Amino acid sequence: MAGDGIQLGLSEAERHTDTSQRDREFELLDLRWDLLPGVFAPHNSRSTAAYTSWLPIPAGGTVLEMGCGAGVTAVYAALRGARAVVAADIAAAAVENTRVNAARHGVSDRVRAVRSDMFAEIGPEERFDLIFWNSSAIPAPESFVYTRDIEWSLFDRDYASHRAYLREAPRRLTEGGRLFLGFNTNGDVERLHRLCAEAGLRAVEARSMTTTYNDGATTTRFMLLELLPADSGG
Ligand SMILES: C[S@@+](CC[C@H](N)C(=O)[O-])C[C@H]1O[C@@H](n2cnc3c(N)ncnc32)[C@H](O)[C@@H]1O
């Protein structure tokens, strides 16, 4: 099972970087976007558009998009009324891509892109009304070595980034702020729920969508999960 996940992730990494099929520009959410080499291609996955349109963007509020990739969700949030957006990614090309798309859509004044391994470079005092990560859901073993930046878009070694997100993100919310995770069934859903419980959280499905993956045979469910305190009602 774990091996299947790695194989799927590696073939997805190929699909996202295949220059013969790869566009320098793409259309999503009725807008045109730039795509830089090596960055997760949002139009090759139905997840980006779905999560972006499902998220309750706080009008006049602050948003942190973790793992921004090409910057679609971060830029869209600014276009939809967020006052200030921080877009973070571990991959330098993703940070640059987000800056390019923020400029393209005239929201550079409201979107700050930073290179950061999870919250490492996010100021400890910064607080957000909404935090979201369309996560790299496939668990890779502790021995896994990342050889290309695109692999950060598919794999999370030993779920270290998920654990950091679940531990850190709740502390970075404003009072009343909301925390979301985009996860899918190529990942280990049971393990995610265990990690949530360890972090004092529970994951509640806000929206989901089932889609057929690249080969026409694999079915994947994409879930927008809201992460709530474990002891909250409901
Ligand atoms: C599934 S992709 C989503 C990209 C983009 N948000 C989208 O929806 O098109 C996951 C993103 O998370 C980033 N990422 C993975 N691990 C990270 C970490 N530890 N810190 C920051 N970003 C990370 C990857 O580089 C990648 O851009």
From TrEMBL:
Molecular function GO terms recorded: methyltransferase activity
Top-level taxon: Bacteria
Positions of region (Disordered): 1-21
Domain Methyltransferase small: 36-134
Record-linked CDD domains: AdoMet_MTases
UniProt-listed InterPro entries: N5-glutamine_MTase, SAM-dependent_MTases_sf, Small_mtfrase_dom
Keywords, alphabetical: Methyltransferase, Transferase
Listed Basic and acidic residues bias regions: 12-21
Gene Ontology terms: biological process: methylation
Pfam family, one: MTS
Database matches in PANTHER family: HEMK METHYLTRANSFERASE, MTRF1L RELEASE FACTOR GLUTAMINE METHYLTRANSFERASE
Name used for this protein in its record: Methylase of polypeptide subunit release factors
